[in-house]
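Hypothesis: this fold can be encoded by more than one sequence.
Test: take the structure tokens below, design a sequence, compare later.
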């Protein structure tokens, strides 16, 4: 299939979202009339962007300086992550790069929120979060960068790869090789023998302290595990809610498209009815004239 005309496609994805389908179909019809059937088919197949993808597109298109800062910040964050993995970076530089990338994302999220409000779109936090993830994916994922940077995303994207949405979820960095031999620890002097009764009491106290320390460590480990499990459960619930919202959004769009097509068919039927009624009136008038003559 031949590629669609690039300038025309770019214009489509810059339109208000509610105008996309009508303008796309009109462009496809014009291309067919001009004899460019392959290009017409390519245009007709262009998907309408989701609400979140449309908002991300408009933010990138309208805030070009902020978008350039996001791509630079994303590249710097990826480089900082690679350096940490190679044992050559530092946590401070990684955090600095992450903060820069987050700030760039939020600038565009604010712009997207304003654009959605001006068009009367969905301002739910679920939609805003999908805009945020799409912009973050465009910043750090090579496979998402092209379409997000071009302002032609058709669906929301989530950060993929090793780090995902959390740049600090890193494996332990490699330890640098030792350049000097570490000095051997000097043997501790042997403690003087104590009377048996005092020695037993001290040993019992040390054992009790070790057991208490071990118990505290077990409790802390269990608490951290519960926190991770609760965070994972909240994330699953968020994703499930986002999926339900996506399905409902797609169902609404499909219903709206079916309604629009049905309205077109109804209008065509009414036009045919009017033509038939006019033809009947003309025939009756002709018959009356012949009978009078």
């Amino acid at each position: 299939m031949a590629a669609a005309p690039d300038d025309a496609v770019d214009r489509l994805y810059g339109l208000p979202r509610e105008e996309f389908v009508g303008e796309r179909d009109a462009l496809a019809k014009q291309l067919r009339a001009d004899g460019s059937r392959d290009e017409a088919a390519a245009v007709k197949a262009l998907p309408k962007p989701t609400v979140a993808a449309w908002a991300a597109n408009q933010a990138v298109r309208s805030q070009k300086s902020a978008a350039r800062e996001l791509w630079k910040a994303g590249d710097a964050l990826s480089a900082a992550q690679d350096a940490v993995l190679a044992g050559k970076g530092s946590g401070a530089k990684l955090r600095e790069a992450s903060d820069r990338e987050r700030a760039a994302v939020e600038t565009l999220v604010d712009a997207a929120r304003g654009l959605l409000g001006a068009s009367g779109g969905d301002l739910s936090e679920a939609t805003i979060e999908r805009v945020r993830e799409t912009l973050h994916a465009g910043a750090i994922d090579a496979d998402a960068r092209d379409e997000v940077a071009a302002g032609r995303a058709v669906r929301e994207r989530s950060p993929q790869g090793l780090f995902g949405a959390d740049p600090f979820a890193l494996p332990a960095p490699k330890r640098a090789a030792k350049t000097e031999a570490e000095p051997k620890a000097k043997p501790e002097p042997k403690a003087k023998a104590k009377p048996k009764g005092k020695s037993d009491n001290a040993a019992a106290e040390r054992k009790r302290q070790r057991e208490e320390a071990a118990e505290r460590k077990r409790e802390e480990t269990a608490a951290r595990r519960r926190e991770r499990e609760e965070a994972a459960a909240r994330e699953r619930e968020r994703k499930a809610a986002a999926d339900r919202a996506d399905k409902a959004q797609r169902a609404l769009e499909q219903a709206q498209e079916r309604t629009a097509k049905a309205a077109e068919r109804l209008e065509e039927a009414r036009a045919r009815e009017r033509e038939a009624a006019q033809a009947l009136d003309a025939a009756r008038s002709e018959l009356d004239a012949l009978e009078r003559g």
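Residues 196-292 form the longest helix (97 residues). DSSP finds nine helices and no strands in the chain.
Hypothesis status: open.
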